[in-house]
Amino acid sequence: MAKRSKRYNQAAELVDVTKTYSLVEAVTLLKKFPAPKFDSTVTLSFALGVDPRKSDQMVRGSVSLPHGTGKKVRVVVFATGDAAKAAEAAGADKVGMDDLIKEVQDGFTDFDIAIATPDAMASVRKIARVLGPRGLMPNPKTGTVTNDTAKAIDAVKAGRIDYKIDKNANVSAAIGKASFDDAKLVENAQALVDSLVKGKPASAKGNFIKAVTVTSSMNPGVKLDSSVFAPAV
């Protein structure tokens, strides 16, 4: 078993592992944890009742959090011409085409979101093996393949997040920072839940959200009572 820090153990002592918490209770509890020397990211994680091996039960999507993530999002854009100029004006961290693809091939992955125009995708697919495993591959379903590069950049910098089920049928996404007001974290969490439930595959039967946990960086998780999300279902 991994050795836990004194601060982690102090936080763990505050969690009653025999109960499940409401979202409001859990957020309040997170704020009582001894704080690390940085502003922790708060993450909401779900265990879903689907089979990710089946193509008709894949779960992925994007949602704009009402209060953003609190994180500076680094965006690169694969585009030329007017779309490239619009991306630069909208504040993209890097814009390019063949030159940017070459940089990625040489190991550059120091960014959070990649956006591409539809006509750029034929070239961007050359680096799919680099971008894909890192969750950086542009995708029309998440709004990152578009001719309106400025709008896409504005959306991700304002707090839009992407999420995707993993091989164990789990979904995790950041919903803000520990410094956020409780109400902002709760509203961001509810926005994520609403989006997730809305994207429930038609072929998925039974309980869709089996378990939910909220946590902050380097701290223990707090199990939520999934019935608190009943209004979203």
TrEMBL record:
Q: Name one GO biological process term.
A: translation
Q: Where does the sequence pass through the membrane?
A: none
User: What does the record give under GO molecular function?
Assistant: rRNA binding; structural constituent of ribosome; tRNA binding
Instruction: Look up the record and report any one GO term of the cellular component aspect.
Output: large ribosomal subunit
Q: Sorted alphabetically, which keywords does the UniProt record give?
A: Repressor, Ribonucleoprotein, Ribosomal protein, RNA-binding, rRNA-binding, Translation regulation, tRNA-binding
Return the Gene3D superfamilies for the record.
Answer: 3.30.190.20, 3.40.50.790
In terms of InterPro entries, this protein maps to: Ribosom_uL1_bac-type, Ribosomal_uL1, Ribosomal_uL1-like, Ribosomal_uL1/biogenesis, Ribosomal_uL1_3-a/b-sand, Ribosomal_uL1_CS
Subunit description: Part of the 50S ribosomal subunit.
Q: Which NCBIfam families match?
A: rplA_bact (TIGR01169)
Q: Please give the function described in this protein's UniProt entry.
A: Protein L1 is also a translational repressor protein, it controls the translation of the L11 operon by binding to its mRNA. Binds directly to 23S rRNA. The L1 stalk is quite mobile in the ribosome, and is involved in E site tRNA release.
Give the similarity note.
Belongs to the universal ribosomal protein uL1 family.
Give the protein name, as stated in the record. Large ribosomal subunit protein uL1
Q: Which organism is it from?
A: Rubritalea profundi
